[in-house]
Each structure stands twice: as C-alpha cells, then as structure tokens.
Amino acid sequence: MALIIRLTEFYRSTKPVEHPNRQKLLDLICRLAYKSGDFTLSSGQKSTYYINGKLVTLHPFGALWTGQVLLSMLPRDTGAVGGLTLGADPIVSAVSVVSAYENQPIPALIIRKQPKGHGTAAWIEGPELAEGTHVVVLEDVVTTGQSALFAVEKLRNAGYVVTEILTLVDRRQGGAELYAKEGLGFKAVFTIDEIQNYAQASQ
C-alpha cells in the first residue's frame, strides 16, 4: 500500500518543468535523439524506439539547456550532482558549469562502472566532499532504473547522502517503481509519452 501511495504522489507531482528552455530541449531530443525501429536496450529489453541522450547532452546548446533545466530542478540543499559513466558524464558536467555561471557552484561527481585500476582504486571521480554532503544523481534516460541505483549505492558507500534522482527522460518501464521501493525521490524532465506525442506532431 505504501508503494502505491508513493507512486500516486509521484505521478500527481510530475508536471512540466517551468523553464524557458524546456521546449527547446524537447525539440532537440525529438530531432536528434529519438529514433523509431527495432532496438535492444542496455537492459536487454527489446524496444520499438531508442533515445540516444548523448546526441543531445554533447550538443553545445543541448548541454546548455540540459544544465539549465536540471539545475532549476535541484533541491536547495544539493551539495553536488553525480551519475554513472558514460551517459551521465556530460549531464553532471553541464549542470556544474551552468551552476557556476548562476553563482551557485555545484561540484560534479562521476561514478565508475569498475573501480580505478591503479592509484587510489576509486569508484568516484571528482572533488572530495565532506561526509554527509547531499548528492543528487542525474541520468539521461531511465528504463529499469538499475544504472542510477548503482550510482546511489557507490555514493552512499562513500559517505554521501542521496535521496533524489533526476532524469531527462523517463521511459516509464519500471524505474519510478524501483526508486519508490527504495525510498528515493524521482523526477523526469520529460516522459516518453510527451516525447512520442511531440515527435509525431512534428512529422
């Protein structure tokens, strides 16, 4: 019952992000990142569409708008942003750079899929922050939610506090349910429904 209540609250609270560049970001995702066809996802699932978020987050304006929109969604107590390499690398970097220009600098952390093979053997790249720092995990596309959950685990093991995950796109294939079960807050800039509707209308 608790899980159902949390999911209901999540979907009720998921409303369009109020940022002037959100629409530009949506248009760029539909033009560059969204493709129809037959695809196999990293989770192993089959899909009739694919979203390559890096085609947007590595685009000069895509990176800027991504950083601006996600920065506007961060909780006030955010001390850093982090994410699992490779998809989150340009996103956390964009948010960090935009935050400096907005005079509210937020460091970026990158979580490795394997520990560093030499030196410190670290799982996390980036500045060393105080224990208890609040870190928000960022993703480009959430499907099952496992990638971001892996990042959460490594950040918590390092002594950071993680209670929130933000993504550019929620495919609505189990990620929200997994995060709710784990007691994590979750917000998406776009759902797959909005992207598909916009892409179809733009044809």
From TrEMBL:
5-phospho-alpha-D-ribose 1-diphosphate binds at R112, K113, K116, H118, E139, D140, V141, V142, T143, T144, G145, Q146, S147. Residues 111-182 form the Phosphoribosyltransferase domain. Its EC number is 2.4.2.10. It comes from the Bacteria. Catalyzes the transfer of a ribosyl phosphate group from 5-phosphoribose 1-diphosphate to orotate, leading to the formation of orotidine monophosphate (OMP). HAMAP family: PyrE. Belongs to the purine/pyrimidine phosphoribosyltransferase family. PyrE subfamily. This is Orotate phosphoribosyltransferase.
